[in-house]
């Protein structure tokens, strides 16, 4: 149920859910019906709660001449989506802010202004109106489209250093850089904002209510960025929103930093909604983490660059094995439960891969246009072959062959995969057994790739993400995931991060680049080709 809100000057009018714009007389009529003043707050937004639980947040610096339309949704869990429109189709998908719920919340000068390291920077604080466009490839008459609030420090903060009790939790699968993000949240809070009380949550979400906390300070995190994994431990499952928020409330925690993938960010959104319902002055910030790069909107997730770089070692080994034997095949399985970004980018980086198989691009084995036909052709051409397959690819073929219909799930509800690498290796060996001498070596570096420390580029990425999260929380922003959008750090509403999974779009130019680098066929049957043409959707968020 969405209410269109037309407001003029200092008043707010609520109209029945319709997108029509009201005439002045109707507006006057509604004004009398809803005639109420909205408490002024110290920011551009003022909030108003109706008994229906709907909360509308409007910006009040509107002049009569330039009425804006604010579309709000009262559907849970995004009860306070803040969408502001502007000229030429400008849309800001803003994030919640402390002042939305606590209009009289005190603010303090940002201690950074007295910090020697930052005082030399001319324009260190981010301007209130700085926003970042989601789409940067535009035409002269394109509408300006969706923007997100730019990350960074603001002039005023909503926490006094000694009042802060922050906690950090890591959830889901491992990813290079987890420890760097933990380290830089601790360093950012300590060095930039003088915060001394920071807790680690032990073992993922369940640690909130089932474990003691871990003390974090500059000393304990000093060199953790050199190790893979997470010093806090992680887990899947165990997200009990009530128990988690009870623990946050009982412990007096007022800042929660959640480092995790798409599942964790959904968990963060649920925690934020519960905190809001309880009217707790607690900030919740998500730092997106996934080796699969399956989180939408952001340019890429931290750890992805390291994972692609690490995958090169396995692909190179596969290439050495394949070229050392007659009709040698080196087959490498990489991570990618639902999204094939690692396999795609590792293949493009290597230039030695003859065939890349990902979950988003269906393939079949037997018959004309199938994988076996292509292997036969490639071995005849060059006598060796390297195949890279994402662990989520071909699961349908495997389930069919094993006559398995039930899909097992992990504690978080993610699909538990069969080992496609082992299965397809056996199928290839069986198929060519009577046709030619073939030597196939199967390499599975999946966990090796995600358990390593982050490389230099990801370390910088982790540092800036962590600092942006700290700046945002201290500035009173709430219920956001921090993320790089077109090279700029932004605060993204949870609902945008959790609305879908980022997948390789096989009608995108990037996939075409891959096909032209491996010269593999599309492996699509005619029916799939028609279906995929219908799939032409948003280009993937990979900005290449
Ligand atoms: N829809 C959801 N609502 C609340 N909590 C969730 C939801 N989905 C997942 N979670 C919780 O978030 C945590 C992490 O989820 P999950 O295991 O899916 O990993 P992830 O965060 O997606 O990371 P990765 O994909 O990198 O493994 C788990 O504790 C899980 O219980
Ligand atoms: O960590 P687990 O439970 O073995 O799950 C492995 C999955 O986690 C990921 O590493 C991240 O989601 C996937 O690439 C992989 O399929
Ligand atoms: Mg996930």
UniProtKB/TrEMBL annotation:
Its EC number is 2.7.1.11. The active site is at 292 (proton acceptor). Pathway: Carbohydrate degradation; glycolysis; D-glyceraldehyde 3-phosphate and glycerone phosphate from D-glucose: step 3/4. Substrate binds at residues 290-292, 335-337, 391, 447-450. The keyword Kinase applies. Keywords: Allosteric enzyme, ATP-binding, Cytoplasm, Glycolysis, Kinase, Magnesium, Metal-binding, Nucleotide-binding, Transferase. It comes from the Eukaryota. Mg(2+) binds at residue 262. It catalyses: beta-D-fructose 6-phosphate + ATP = beta-D-fructose 1,6-bisphosphate + ADP + H(+). GO terms for molecular function: 6-phosphofructokinase activity; ATP binding; metal ion binding. InterPro entries: PFKA, Phosphofructokinase_dom, PyroP-dep_PFK_TP0108. ATP binds at residues 173, 236-237, 261-264. Homotetramer. Catalyzes the phosphorylation of D-fructose 6-phosphate to fructose 1,6-bisphosphate by ATP, the first committing step of glycolysis. NCBIfam families: PRK06830.1. This is ATP-dependent 6-phosphofructokinase. It comes from Arabidopsis suecica. The lineage of its organism: Eukaryota, Viridiplantae, Streptophyta, Embryophyta, Tracheophyta. The gene is PFK.
